[in-house]
Structure formats: structure tokens, C-alpha cells
């Protein structure tokens, strides 16, 4: 143990030196530089599964981007996004419609003595993804041919131009270390079996996740030595922390976005990642109370989405007409039902159902609870009693999964939001027949939808592709299982002294943040 | 012995009885005067009366339906139309506060009376029963007291989901030991008194001794304790609702109003103020009232005036 003896004289000397440093421009700069090496951010919850095959997404993808290799990454081009090869590759290019060749950068080392990053790790990672919960991202991938220690070819089973943007740039495109993952039993949860990236990762549940500079990393140095992500569940609490100077960047809730837009706090800038989120109220088509499509259609007609946008989202988000977000191929300007309480009552009368009582489950977040209360009032107007059940994120994200228990059998209504990537294919994958009991909690199947999904993967004509995704959303409308709500923008308030880098779906990429 | 009016013994007894009655009446008057001259007691009583009245008559005095939405008027500041402003869904905050008082009253009334009754019975059993039972019940009381109410609530809600019933159960469970311990101590003090020994020697059953002779002597301090526990119970409910594990939307409670207000404190500060004031006043009211009653009925435990 080392003891430090601080005498009164040494204390005064140190204090005077620090005070003097503050008086000089260089001194201030020095102090700021010290401060600038640590980036304080917010996590909306603990990362529970870091394995790309079984993650929930969101901040887990953020962690993967700091610690695991990717072949490609998003790059912002004005208001749109494109892609670029990452520092992990020296070459990544389409050689024809179905072949993407890559060459890894040499000398990138896995932690824990697992050797260097090899093309075989890429092949291993993507092969296991094809059998994972995120397999939809790899439907277009036939195989990965390893042609050398650092080289290989991604072979697609059909031409699919968005593959790099949709899959390789996003969380499922993470590459894991074959040796370490196998040693860990083939799957992992809260710890990476091996890392190869700019930062190391450690987490204290309920408190923070810390990313420290990886001493073994030989790629480009990140902008900050240390990134501390504090677990702050409520976005409003995070905003308070931001305004108090405790964190450097936070997502903004709708009310704060409206307020910031009117009056921006000092030294603050806003970065909007994108509008690639879609929120809806889902209905379990197999639940005895909701098996009658007339009841579901009545619910569709009864919900006043405009009131939700104004009341719960302060008018800061775009109205949704389906799962394809604004600006993407297949985005619609209307949908197959309207807010019409009289029609809703008529449908309820036709169904013959009276005294219906339903449970609406939602995350225990303010906007969701406000949304739920408006829906509750709307459905009360047509004689349906809705009980709101607020839930923590852990049980919420498992409730429709058959593998996670029996809650899926009791699911009636829920408010859900998914993030997506800049291609409509990604959003549709969660609703095919194979996803029933995984992410298709509405539990309907449709052969036409499934075949259109396959067609959408291989169709290269833009107009035809657009027609496919419009039709798929029409099929979803017709199930009566969806009330489309909104597309929330992912908006971040941050200090003007940092440059924020976010994926179009909102995940932050800390190692690409830069002090300005 | 005859019981003629001229009988000096009877005459003496009547005189003694009258004197006792007069003494008791004088004592009651003195206590009432003491209470009425104690500003804290009167303030407490006034606040408690307001709390009860506003909660009971909320449906008639609330200017709006507490759940009626008026989204265009969301987060409006206090005006004559909405004296405490509106919330995110344009609901009248004042009406929600009045109806929130009903939740507080419901929890306080049911929670306190249930925990008092259970605590009283368990405490008397502990104080009068065999040693092993006393030790067992004390252990149970201490175990419950040592477990933080919020943690217990979180664990329960994880299993059952949030609801008013869960809040009530938590309130009852966590406040039983307070009553139980007081009842036990008072019963222990009475256990070897002459009138209890006399009853026992006459063959009275344990139930009769406990409920006819011990309970009337034990209930007084418990009622004073109950008055002082009400704000604790109201705070537990508000705290759990604030954390989102109490009442379910759209039901208004002071805790949910505070929670919703805290989330928009920079845009609509009146919500937190309006939600906090009744909680503070109710807590003060019951505390003042309880302390004043304690000073009067149990001066040894008083504020040392």
C-alpha cells in the first residue's frame, strides 16, 4: 500500500499551482484537455446480452461497436447515410451482384491471447448468425469463403445491394473470436469472450458501463481515453444530468426537444440520427379475446393517433403508416384504416362482443404511459375497458418470446417500438411466419407476406421493390393486429465541444466521437 | 344488607361515585382545553379535517373529471379555469390532486386499521403468551422492520405486477410491527396486575382476558400511534406510486402526480408543487395531531413541556 503524506504546505502549493494554471489560457486549455479525455454518456439500461446473435439491440450494439470488429460502418452524407469500410479492413467491395470480397487489416489482436483477427473469424461469426435470433439479417448470405488468412468472400444467394448497409454496418455484422466464443460454450451474455477494438469493456449492473482504451489496439486511436456510460433509465433524468453537466450527451425526450428547439441551452448542439424507428400498438391475433378480426379492426378505428402525437410526443414525431420509415423505399403516406369511433362501435356491434376487458402492456416510460392512457380513453369510448400494465424493460422484451416463458399466451395488447436500418427489408423480417413466438408477437402468418419477403430480398428494380414493401404493409393492415403510431426521431443534445457519431437507427459509436 | 336510601354505606358509595364521575369529567374538560390551546394540535386537527373532507367529497368539489383529457390545453400554467394547471394530457391537476387524496385516504384508512388490528392481536399474544411464542413473534416483527419497504415492494411487484392492492399489502405488512411491539409492551406490563390475576383465578379464558381486560388498556397508545403512522403510510403509497410501482394509470395519486411532474419539472413546475403541497400538509397535520394527543394522554412520552 502506498501512503501519500499531504502536509498543509504541499496542499497549499498544489492549490496555488492549480489556481494559477486556471488564470492562463494555456492552463485552461490543459485543464480542458484533461477533462476532454473522458466522455460521460447515458445508458438507458444494463446491457444484458452482448452476443450479437441473441442481443436485444440498442446499447448492446453500441458496446459491440467499441469492442468487436465490423467490416463496414455508416457514414453520414448530409441528411442521408452511406457506408465505408472500417479500420478492420483494407478492402471491402462488391466484385459482382452476389460476391463481396474483403481483406482484413493485419496485426489486429484479440484479447486474452486468442491470436489475431482472421478471415475464419468472419466466416464463423456469420455462419452462427444464420442460426441465431437475428438470422433474418443473413437470409441473403449463402456462405463466407475463406480465401486466405486475412481474405475472404461473402457469397450472397441472390443479388441484394443493401446487404452491406443493412447487415454489415449494423449490430448483427459484429465479428466474434471463434476460439474464445467456442471456449465460452458458443454463446455469451454480459462479457465479451475476447475483444478486438479501440476500447475494453466492463460494467457494474445498475450503475455504469466503462470503456477504457484498449492497450492492444493498433488501429486508429479513439477521440477519448475513457467513456463512462451511466445507467439512467428515464430520459428526463438523463436530460437533468446533462443540464447539470454530469453527462456530455443524451437522447432528448419529445417535450425537451420541443423546448430545446425554442431555446437552446448554452454550449449545446443537437444531432438527429434519423427517424428509423417505428412504434405501434400490437394485438395478439391468437388470443381468445382478440381472435375476432372485427374486434381488432374496431380497435384500429378507435385509436386517435393524432392525439397521441400531440399529447405524448409534443408534436415532435412523424405519424406512422406502417413499419417502413419515412424516406425509405416503400414508405406510405396513408394506411388502411382511419380514426373513426362510429365505425369502431359499428364493428364492435357486428362482432357481438360486449364488456371486453383487455390488458395493455407497455414499457414504464413516460411517453409510452401517456400513449397508453390515450389509447385507454379511446377504447373506453367504444366500450372496451383497458387495464394498463407498466413493465420494466427486462420482462417487457421477453414477454412475447415462447422461449422465455408463458407470458406470450396472456399477451393481449402492447405498445412496441423497433429501430431499423436504411432499407425496408430489415423491418419486414420480424413479421414473417418464422418469427411467430420470437418477434412476431401478433402471431399471424401469411404465405403472400412470406413470399413477398423473399422477393424483396432479390428484387433489384426499385419500383417493383417499392410495390413489394407497400403490399407487405397492406397485408399487415389487413390482419387488424396493428395500430401504427409514430416514427420518433433519435435526437441527441450534446456539448458543442464534442462531435457525435450515431447510426441512422440511433446507436452511438463512441470511438468515433471527437473533441472539437 | 338492605339498600335503603338512608343507608349510610350506600350514601357513601353514591357520593364516591359522583365524585369520581365529576373528577373524570373535570379531567376530560382539562384535556380538551389543553388540546384547544395547543396551536399544533388545532392546526393538525384542521389539516386532518380538510384532508378527510377533500378526499371524501372530491367527486363533488373537483371542478373536472380527473381523467378527462384536453390535449390542446396540455401543460398549461395555473389559471382561474385550472388553478393548479394541467398535465401532459391536459387533465386538471387540481381535480387529480383531490382524487389522489382519496387514494391516500383509502390506503391510510384500510392500511392503518388493518395493521393496527393485526398488530394489536399479535402484540397481545406475544405479551401474554408463552415465552417461546413471544420470542418468535418478536423475531418476526424485527425481520419485517429490518426489510426496507421499497425493496419489499419492488420484489413483490416483480412477481405480481403493480397495483393498489400490492401497495396496501406492503403498507400493512411493514407497519404491523410498530403496533405489535407497543401492544406487546403494554400487555407485558398488565400481565401481572391484580385485576388480571383475579380474572385468571376466577377461571376466565385467555380470549376473555385479552379482549375484555387487556385490549381496552392497550388500545389508547395504539390509536395515538395510528394517528402518527398515517403520514408514514401516505408517504409509502406516494413513494411507491412515484416509482411507478403503485397505482395504475390513469388513477391519480399524489405519487403519480409528483412523478409525472418531476419528469417535466422544467416545462411545468406547477405539477410538482401542486402534487407536493397536499403531501406535506397531510404529513404535518397527522404528525401535529398525533403529537398533541400523545402529550395529552401520555404526558410521560411528550415533548417535555
UniProtKB/TrEMBL annotation, chain A:
Q: Name one Pfam family in it.
A: SBP_bac_5
Compartments, record wording: Periplasm
Name the Gene3D superfamilies on file. Dipeptide-binding Protein, Domain 1, Dipeptide-binding Protein, Domain 3, Periplasmic binding protein-like II
Solute-binding protein family domain: which residues? 96-433
| Predominant location | periplasm
* Chain coiled-coil ranges: none
Q: PANTHER family attached here?
A: PERIPLASMIC BINDING COMPONENT OF ABC TRANSPORTER
Family of this protein: Belongs to the bacterial solute-binding protein 5 family.
Q: What is this protein called?
A: Peptide ABC transporter substrate-binding protein
Species name: Arenibacterium halophilum
Amino acid at each position: 500500500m502506498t501512503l501519500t503524506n499531504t502536509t498543509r504546505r504541499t496542499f497549499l502549493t498544489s492549490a496555488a499551482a492549480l489556481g494559477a494554471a486556471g488564470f492562463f489560457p494555456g492552463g485552461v486549455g490543459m485543464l480542458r484537455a484533461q477533462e476532454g479525455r473522458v466522455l460521460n454518456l447515458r445508458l438507458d439500461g444494463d446491457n444484458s446480452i452482448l452476443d450479437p446473435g441473441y442481443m436485444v439491440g440498442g446499447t448492446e450494439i453500441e458496446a459491440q461497436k467499441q469492442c468487436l470488429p465490423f467490416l463496414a460502418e455508416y457514414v453520414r452524407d448530409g441528411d442521408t447515410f452511406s457506408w465505408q469500410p472500417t479500420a478492420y479492413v483494407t478492402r471491402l467491395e462488391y466484385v459482382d451482384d452476389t460476391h463481396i470480397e474483403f481483406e482484413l487489416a493485419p496485426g489486429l489482436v484479440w484479447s486474452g491471447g486468442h491470436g489475431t483477427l482472421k478471415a475464419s473469424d468472419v466466416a464463423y461469426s456469420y455462419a452462427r448468425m444464420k442460426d441465431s435470433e437475428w438470422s433474418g439479417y443473413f437470409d441473403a448470405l449463402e456462405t463466407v469463403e475463406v480465401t486466405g488468412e486475412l481474405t475472404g468472400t461473402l457469397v450472397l444467394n441472390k443479388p441484394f445491394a443493401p446487404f452491406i448497409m443493412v447487415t454489415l454496418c449494423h449490430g448483427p455484422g459484429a465479428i466474434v473470436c471463434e476460439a474464445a466464443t467456442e471456449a465460452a460454450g458458443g454463446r455469451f451474455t454480459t462479457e465479451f469472450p475476447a475483444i478486438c477494438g479501440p476500447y475494453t469493456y466492463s460494467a457494474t449492473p445498475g450503475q455504469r458501463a466503462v470503456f477504457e482504451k484498449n492497450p492492444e489496439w493498433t488501429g486508429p486511436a479513439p477521440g477519448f481515453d475513457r467513456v463512462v456510460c451511466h445507467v439512467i433509465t428515464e430520459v428526463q433524468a438523463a436530460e437533468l444530468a446533462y443540464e447539470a453537466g454530469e453527462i456530455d450527451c443524451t437522447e432528448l425526450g419529445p417535450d425537451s426537444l420541443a423546448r430545446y428547439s425554442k431555446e437552446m441551452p448554452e454550449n449545446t448542439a443537437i444531432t438527429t440520427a434519423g427517424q428509423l424507428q417505428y412504434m405501434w400498438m400490437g394485438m395478439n391475433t391468437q388470443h381468445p379475446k382478440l381472435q375476432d378480426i372485427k374486434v381488432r379492426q374496431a380497435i384500429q378505428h378507435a385509436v386517435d393517433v393524432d392525439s397521441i402525437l400531440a399529447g405524448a410526443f409534443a408534436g415532435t414525431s412523424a405519424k406512422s403508416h406502417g413499419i417502413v420509415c419515412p424516406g425509405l423505399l416503400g414508405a406510405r403516406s396513408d394506411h388502411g384504416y382511419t380514426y373513426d369511433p362510429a365505425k369502431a362501435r359499428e364493428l364492435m356491434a357486428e362482432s357481438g362482443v360486449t364488456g371486453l376487458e383487455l390488458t395493455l402492456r407497455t414499457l414504464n416510460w413516460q411517453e409510452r404511459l401517456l400513449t397508453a392512457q390515450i389509447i385507454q380513453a379511446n377504447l373506453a369510448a367504444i366500450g372496451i375497458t383497458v387495464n394498463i400494465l407498466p413493465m420494466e424493460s427486462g420482462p417487457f422484451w421477453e414477454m412475447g418470446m415462447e422461449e422465455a416463458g408463458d407470458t406470450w399466451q396472456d399477451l393481449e395488447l402492447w405498445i412496441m417500438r423497433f429501430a431499423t436500418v436504411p432499407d425496408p427489408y430489415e423491418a419486414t423480417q420480424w413479421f414473417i411466419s418464422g418469427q411467430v413466438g420470437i418477434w412476431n408477437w401478433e402471431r399471424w402468418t401469411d404465405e403472400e407476406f412470406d413470399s413477398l419477403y423473399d422477393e424483396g430480398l432479390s428484387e433489384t428494380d426499385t419500383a417493383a421493390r417499392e410495390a413489394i414493401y407497400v403490399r407487405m404493409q397492406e397485408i399487415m393492415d389487413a390482419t387488424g393486429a396493428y395500430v401504427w403510431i409514430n416514427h420518433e426521431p433519435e435526437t441527441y443534445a450534446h456539448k458543442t465541444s464534442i462531435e457525435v457519431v450515431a447510426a441512422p437507427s440511433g446507436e452511438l459509436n463512441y470511438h468515433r466521437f471527437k473533441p472539437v | 344488607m338492605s339498600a335503603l336510601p338512608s343507608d349510610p354505606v350506600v350514601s357513601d358509595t353514591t357520593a364516591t361515585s359522583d365524585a369520581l364521575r365529576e373528577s373524570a369529567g373535570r379531567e376530560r374538560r382539562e384535556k380538551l382545553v389543553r388540546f384547544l390551546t395547543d396551536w399544533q394540535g388545532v392546526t393538525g386537527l384542521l389539516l386532518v379535517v380538510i384532508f378527510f373532507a377533500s378526499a371524501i367529497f372530491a367527486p363533488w368539489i373537483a371542478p373536472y373529471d380527473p381523467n378527462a383529457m384536453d390535449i390542446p390545453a396540455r401543460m398549461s400554467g395555473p389559471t382561474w379555469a385550472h388553478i393548479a394547471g394541467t398535465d401532459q394530457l391536459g387533465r386538471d391537476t387540481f381535480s387529480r390532486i383531490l382524487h389522489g387524496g382519496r387514494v391516500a385516504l383509502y390506503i391510510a384508512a384500510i392500511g392503518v386499521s388493518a395493521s393496527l388490528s393485526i398488530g394489536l392481536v399479535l402484540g397481545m399474544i406475544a405479551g401474554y403468551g408463552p415465552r417461546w411464542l413471544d420470542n418468535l413473534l418478536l423475531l418476526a416483527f424485527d425481520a419485517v422492520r429490518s426489510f426496507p419497504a421499497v425493496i419489499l415492494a419492488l420484489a413483490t411487484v416483480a412477481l405480481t405486477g403493480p397495483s393498489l392492492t400490492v401497495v396496501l399489502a406492503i403498507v400493512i405488512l411493514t407497519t404491523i410491527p410498530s403496533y405489535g411491539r407497543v401492544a406487546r409492551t403494554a400487555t407485558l406490563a398488565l400481565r401481572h396486575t391484580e385485576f388480571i390475576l383475579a380474572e385468571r383465578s376466577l377461571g376466565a379464558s385467555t380470549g376473555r382476558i385479552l379482549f375484555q381486560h387487556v385490549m381496552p388498556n392497550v388500545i389508547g397508545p395504539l390509536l395515538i400511534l395510528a394517528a402518527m403512522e398515517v403520514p408514514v403510510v401516505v408517504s409509502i403509497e406516494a413513494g411507491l406510486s412515484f416509482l411507478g410501482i403503485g397505482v395504475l394509470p390513469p388513477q391519480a395519486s399524489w405519487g403519480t402526480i409528483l412523478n409525472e411532474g418531476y419528469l417535466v419539472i422544467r416545462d411545468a413546475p406547477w405539477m410538482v408543487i401542486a402534487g407536493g403541497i397536499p403531501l406535506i400538509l397531510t404529513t404535518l397535520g397527522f404528525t401535529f395531531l398525533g403529537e398533541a394527543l400523545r402529550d395529552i394522554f401520555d404526558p410521560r412520552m411528550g415533548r417535555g413541556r
